[in-house]
Structure formats: C-alpha cells, structure tokens
Write a structure and sequence with these properties.
Length: about 500
C-alpha cells in the first residue's frame, strides 16, 4: 500500500516521463528492432526459397505455397501462446523462448533433408515468429507516453530494414551458395537476441503489475543512470496500489460513482471489465458495444496481411519468366527462378510507406490516412489485370507496396487505441491472429493462380480485398487522433458517441 504519512509517491509512467527518451531507450530500441529485423527476414526469404525448391526438388505449386502457409500457421499458434507466457512469467522469458525456437528451427531448416522435414521446421519458425509482438510490447512499455506514436513508426522501420537486408543477401547468396545458406544466414538475427539477452531488463510495468516494485525500481534506477536523469522524489507505487488506496479513502464523488446506476450500467461495466479471461475477453470484444469495431478491425488486419504478403510473392511470381503463360517473353529455360533486382527494388517501397504513415497519421487522422492508401493501392494494382512489361510491373508493385506498408503501420497504431484497457491486448492479439489467416491464404492466390496462368483473376481478387479493406476503415465508428485512451468499455462507448456528435 502507498504510505499513509503523506510522503510523495510516483508511478512507472511518471518516472518514464521525467527521465525522457535517452541512451537506455536507444539500446532497447536496437534490441527489440533486431527481433523485428529477424521476423522480416524470415518472412521475406519465402519469396526466394519457394521458387528455388521448385527447381531443386521439383515440388508442385501447391507444395510451394504450403511452405509459406505453414509459417503463418505456426505464427497463428505462437501469437496466442507467447502472449500468455509473457503475461504470466514476464516479457524476458517470453522473448527468450521465442528467440530460441526461431533461431534453432531456422538453422535446422537449412539442414532439412526432405520436403516434409522442411515443412516441420518452417512451421516451428512460425511458432517462434508469433512471439514478435512480445518484444514490440516490451519496447513500448519503456517509452514515455507522449512519444509512443512517433517511436512506433520508427520501430516499424526495422521491419523495412530487414526486408531490404534479406533481399540484398538473397541477391548475392542464392545464385552462388543456394537456398540452404540463405536459411542459415537469416537465422543469425534471432541468435543475436540470445547472445545479448543478458543486457535486456524486465519491463518495470510488468514487475509493478506483479507487485515486484523493488525490482521495478532497480530497472528505473538503471534507466536514470544511463539517461543521466533523476527519478521523481518519493516512493514507487503501482497503479493497483493507488486504486486500493483510493478505495479505502473514497471521496463523496467516488461514492456516487461506486453506487449502481439506474438500470445497473455501472455493475455491468464493472463485471464486464474485470472478467477478462480468454473466453470472457472474446465475449467482451463481440459485445454490442464493441462488435462493430472488432469485426471491422479483423477484416482490415486480414486485408492488410493478405495484400502485403501477396504483393511480396507477386513480385517474384510476375517477373520470373513463366514463358508457358506469355510466349512473348524471350526468356531462356536458364532464366533465373527469381528476379532478385525487382524484389530488391520493391523492398525499398516500404521506406516511403513509413514516411507517409509518419506524416499523415497525426495530420489526416488514422481513418482517412488508411482508407486513402487502400484506395490508391487499388489504382496501382488495376493495370496488372493484364500482363505488363517487366519495368512497369515493378513500378506498379512498388507503388502498391508503398501504400500497403503505410496502412499496415497505421493500423498497428489505431488498433490499440479503439479498445479499452481491459481488453486492449486481447483485442489487438486476436486481430493479429486473423491477419495471420490472411497471410496463410495469400500464397494460394499469388502462387497457385499465377502458375495456372490466371493473372487477371489473381489481381482482381487482390483488388477486391484491398477495396473492401478501405471501405471497412471508413465504417470504423470513430477517429482516435488526439483522443485519450479509455480504460473501460462504457467509457469507450461514450467516446464513440462524442465522436459521432462532433
């Protein structure tokens, strides 16, 4: 309990705000960013390994797409599992296990003797990659509240770095050393997380939430030393301790709030907000007050993942010389399976995508920025319904990927803002899992239809998904730009009503 003698107290949020962003945060950003680079590299290599195995092992189009789908299947399992582990045992233990699984399975993939073994190891890689949000959440829990939006966009830049780095490595490694070396090299970033694990502290927010305030204070003192700052005067207390103190000394106004309101709204809200187990959280997310936001967000995450990973795969599939579909292509049978130059160029499309997200998210707002980028993406994709010259195809895919990168970045800012604190993590986690389903299904389109000489049908399907995602964004109940985060479901509903009035 907080001291009753009137001495000063402070919370983790107040301490982080006073200390500001400094040297410690740069190191935390680099460590967490390494995890984002690792995930991006493991996902990007799917563009190269599939076509290589098609030539080396003679696998079918369906088998090639399955290599990608099993990774997303593993991520679907990992995203849910590692979240539970990190919430119960700590962020550090969570990302330690994810790094071990990702690095180990990634390296063993390079030694896979046959197709089935490769599928098993790639699925395990996906399970490890599913813990990526653990490290991103760990990073954000160190960031002062006013800077979170800006640093989330900067953090996203590490993904772009990973895609460009992987495309660069593949360009040099694949033609000479082959796909096994690419898999082995791509597992190095996860191994670095293990190597420098000892320097990564536990989240002070997590420690405080578990009542371990002494350990949390040690972490905050370390941050203060590295940032050359001072902690606020007083004693560190958790938010839970403050709530208990307020309950023991309620004011007259608080007494009125604690009394059941007419119709029992307060009682219902309290019951709904406190019962947030796995199944209870789902019921809250699908309650009348949140179901519209939840279902729309699920579709937007699905559309984003389906489109993003589809565009990555389309880059390798549309320009790899399928002469049986287009006889006008004067390409020999010795043509490269993958056009590394085009994939390398389109990887840079994520840089302008990040810049667009950074400049529009707080100016135009989340909804307007996302919907505009989805619709512009449709414009870039439309000419691809018919076969285009290689350079024009690359340019169109570059523009489309720029737009999807921007929407992906913004939706990860918007998603936590539309949910109340009581179900925020569950809401974003479930939406991310639905996005993994989009990633699992897109290879069937990007690879299966293209190999079947159905480019028009494939692009039209992407157009429909992207367009409907843009419409879904417009249907979101409210804009979150400049709004305070709500803690309870009934407060979130009041915010929505205020937005609709404005």
């Amino acid at each position: 309990m907080p001291p009753e003698d009137g001495s000063k107290t402070f919370t983790v949020d107040e301490a982080l705000l006073v200390m500001g962003f400094g040297n410690f945060h740069v190191l935390v950003l680099c460590y967490a960013g390494m995890a984002w680079i690792s995930e991006a590299m493991e996902m990007m290599l799917l563009s190269f390994v599939g076509p290589a195995l098609r030539s080396a092992w003679g696998i079918s189009s369906h088998q090639q797409s399955l290599i990608t789908s099993v990774v997303f299947g593993g991520m679907l399992v990992g995203a849910y599992s590692w979240g539970i582990v990190s919430d119960k045992y700590g962020r550090r233990k969570g990302f330690l296990m994810t790094a071990m699984v990702t690095a180990g399975a990634g390296f063993m993939s390079a030694l896979a003797p046959n197709y089935l073994t490769l599928l098993i190891f790639r699925c395990l890689v996906g399970v490890g990659l599913g813990g990526g949000p653990v490290l991103s959440s760990w990073f954000l829990e160190f960031i002062p509240a006013p800077n979170r939006g800006t640093w989330m966009v900067i953090f996203s830049a590490f993904w772009t770095l990973g895609t460009i780095f992987e495309a660069s490595i593949a360009w040099f490694v694949m033609p000479t050393l082959g796909w096994r070396w690419l898999l082995a090299i791509s597992s190095i970033p996860s191994s670095l997380l293990l190597l420098f694990y000892w320097v990564a502290p536990e989240s002070p927010r997590f420690l405080c939430s578990k009542g371990r305030t002494a350990e949390a204070l040690n972490v905050l003192e370390k941050i203060a030393r590295m940032n050359k700052a001072k902690l606020p005067p007083g004693i560190l207390v958790s938010d839970h301790q403050i709530e208990l103190q307020e309950k023991n000394t309620p004011s007259e106004e608080e007494d009125r709030r604690l009394l059941p309101s007419v119709g029992g709204e307060s009682t219902i809200s309290k019951t709904t907000d406190t019962k947030t187990g796995a199944f209870s959280s789902l019921l809250v997310l699908l309650s009348p007050k949140l179901i519209r936001s939840t279902l729309l967000l699920w579709f937007v995450f699905f559309g984003n993942a389906f489109s993003y990973y589809g565009l990555v795969l389309l880059t390798s599939e549309l320009n790899n010389g399928h002469s049986k579909c287009y006889q006008s292509n004067l390409q020999s049978s010795k043509s490269q399976d993958v056009n590394y130059r085009d994939i390398f160029i389109t990887s840079f499309a994520e840089l302008p995508g990040l810049l667009i997200a950074a400049f529009t998210v707080d100016r135009l707002g989340r909804k307007r920025s996302m919907s505009t980028m989805f619709f512009v993406c449709c414009v870039f994709l439309f000419p691809l319904v018919i076969h285009q010259p290689q350079n024009l195809t690359t340019a169109l895919l570059f523009g489309a990927r720029t737009c999807i990168t921007a929407t992906f970045t913004i939706v990860y800012i918007y998603a936590p803002e539309i949910y109340p604190t009581s179900v925020r993590t569950s809401g974003v986690g479930l939406a991310s899992s639905v996005g993994r389903i989009g990633g699992m299904t897109c290879p069937l389109v990007a690879i299966g239809l293209i190999h079947g000489c159905h480019q028009t049908e494939a692009v039209i399907l992407f157009e429909i998904v992207v367009f409907l995602s843009g419409i879904s964004v417009l249907l979101f109940p409210f804009e979150t730009k400049g709004r305070e985060l709500s803690d309870h479901v009934h407060v979130a509903t009041l915010n929505q009503l205020e937005s609709s009035v404005v």
